[in-house]
Amino acid sequence: MKVTVFGTGYVGLVQGTILAEVGHDVLCIDVDESKVSKLKQGHVPIYEPGLDSLVKENYDAGRLDFSTDAALGVKHGQVQFIAVGTPPDEDGSADLKYVLAVAATIAEHMDDKKVIVDKSTVPVGTADKVYAKISEVLEQRGRSDIPHEVVSNPEFLKEGNAVADCMRPDRIIIGTQSKDAEEVMRELYAPFNRNHDKIIVMDVRSAELTKYAANCMLATKISFMNEIANLAELMGADIEMVRQGIGSDPRIGYQFIYPGVGYGGSCFPKDVQALIRTADSIDFEAKLLKAVEERNNAQKTTLFKKVEQHFNGALKGKTFALWGLSFKPNTDDMREAPSRVLMEALWQAGASVQAYDPEAMEETQRIYGNRNDLTLCGTKESALKGADALIIVTEWQSFRAPDFDLIKAQLRESIIFDGRNMFDPNRMTSKGFVYYSVGRKPAMSL
Ligand code: UDX
After folding, report:
1. Nearest C-alpha to atom 14 of ligand 1 is from which residue?
2. Which among 358, 303, 288, 292 is positioned nearest to 326, based on CA atoms?
3. pLDDT band at 99; cut points 50, 70, 90
4. Which residues are noted in the entry as substrate-binding (predicted)?
5. What is the ipTM of this complex?
6. Do 416 and 392 form a contact (C-beta atoms < 8 A)?
7. Ligand 1 contacts CB of residue 158 (under 6 A)
8. Domain at 2-202: CATH architecture
9. Which of 118, 110, 131 is nearest to 174 (CA)?
């Protein structure tokens, strides 16, 4: 099938590439000329394991192409994906200007039947707005005769695992009440719908809400666990034991109950906020979601508070080694990353940071530029040199078995603040470290 994807961000680029990989003829459109020309040369602008080779292979095979020419894009695909950003506007609601601009573009150039698919995470009711926008522009053109359908097809991929998530989705949500559009979508996704039926067809609004409900549910699990972890510290319990104890109940499950430094990234913070705002706009107070957000914002400050307490507030002139900058492993994404809240608090208190991340160094440099209180180090070991303590913010695999003797030798004091519970507190104590973790070692915790 011929498919056009508007927007080559995470969602659009991965989706377009995966559709090409199974044999569809895909054209990706983006307004950013330099991005498009880089993609044509095989340069993928994001770090996503496995994506660059797939882009290159499919581009070379002629199944995947990139362009800034929107008119060409509209002509190309029977299916037109809208996968552009929906950034939060000032009050936290999702800003639909890019989505509606693409809808208008499609309507300006279409001259035969199209199925328009909303892939971006958009508030309930957006598909209706997209449909109305397309109808309005077609009417202005005197072409109200051209048939079109708007389908909601939310994406559930995780950064760092996007290719695998897209190739083997848990479910494929198709929001439409049109039998024709459903059939087109079934054919498009047939290569991903083997072994058992993963397609769930529902009305458009339910599909739109499904996406927010999924992300908000996962964010709720994390905030709940962070709350219990904070309690465990105060009560002298060990959250790791509690985690295993409750995860073994299949109704709860082991996934997404890891306590830490709060969730970040491009989805959870934005989507929780957007659903709160949507609820507000229809005079419903989303009390639970507000609490989820509040717990998360507070959680992002817990590591700093532990550092501050340990040093009795005397952080001026201190230097901290920081391992992990991205909001989670296997990505260079720094959006809403807990490391940012921590670094900014340390700087505010007059401390300096020597940071290392396997992928997010360039992004950190881009965000913060050159500052005297930030040194970006080439290795995790060099970040330790002369620092007053080590702080671990992101649980990269390469941090799991460090050379503890070297850490001790390089740090001025043998102190580790671990925001991800990477090590066994007893082992750390026996190695001579003062070890802080999240909800684990009551004697050392706040
Ligand atoms: C998320 C959803 O998982 C995905 O389905 C959706 O399409 C987009 O949003 P992503 O933001 O890429 O994906 O990351 P995810 O792996 O879900 O992690 C989100 C955040 O939660 C990270 O900051 C992570 O560190 C944190 N997290 C996750 C925890 O603190 N504890 C956990 O147990 C799990």
Report:
1. 158
2. 358
3. very high
4. 156-159, 211, 256-260, 264, 328
5. 0.95
6. yes
7. yes
8. 3-Layer(aba) Sandwich (3.40)
9. 118
Backbone angles phi, psi at 432, to 5 degrees: 95, 15
Give me the phi and psi of 347, to 5 degrees please.
Answer: -65, -45
Atom of ligand 1 nearest to the CA of 214: 5
- 201 alpha carbon – ligand 1 mean position (Å): 25
At 99, list the tokens.
């989505």
Is the beta carbon of 328 within 6 A of some atom in ligand 1?
yes
> Considering only CA atoms, which of 83, 8, 80, 85 is closest in space to residue 51?
8
Does 259 appear as a known binding residue? yes
**pLDDT, position 445:** 43
* Nearest Cα to Cα of residue 231 among 259, 268, 257: 259
Q: Strand, helix or coil at 208?
A: helix
Cα separation, 247 vs 259, whole angstroms: 13
Contact between 283 and 314 under an 8 Å Cβ cutoff? The reply is no
As given in the structure block, the two tokens for residue 122 are: 């958009």
pLDDT at residue 202 is higher than 60 = yes
Helix (H) or strand (E) holding 74: helix 70-76
Indicate the top mutation candidate among 293, 328, 359 to test ligand 1's pocket, ranked by most ligand atoms within 8 A of CB: 328
Atom of ligand 1 nearest to the CA of 222: 31
Contacts of 28 (CB under 8 A, 6+ apart): 4, 5, 8, 12, 13, 16, 39, 64, 65, 66, 67
What superfamily does domain 212-297 belong to in CATH?
Answer: N-(1-d-carboxylethyl)-l-norvaline Dehydrogenase; domain 2 (1.10.1040.10)
Residue whose tokens read 């609820």: 279
The segment(s) of the chain belonging to CATH 3.40.50.720 are: 2-202, 300-436
Determine the residue type at 211.
Answer: K
Tell whether the torsion through CA atoms of 18, 21, 25 and 28 is positive or negative. positive
Q: How confident is the model at residue 60 (pLDDT cuts 50, 70, 90)?
A: very high
> pTM here?
0.93
The answer to whether the beta carbons of residues 392 and 428 sit under 8 Å apart is no
State the greatest distance between any 2 C-alpha atoms of the chain, in Å, as a whole number.
79
Question: Ligand 1 centre from 266 Cα, in Å?
Answer: 9
List the structure tokens of 167.
């190739």
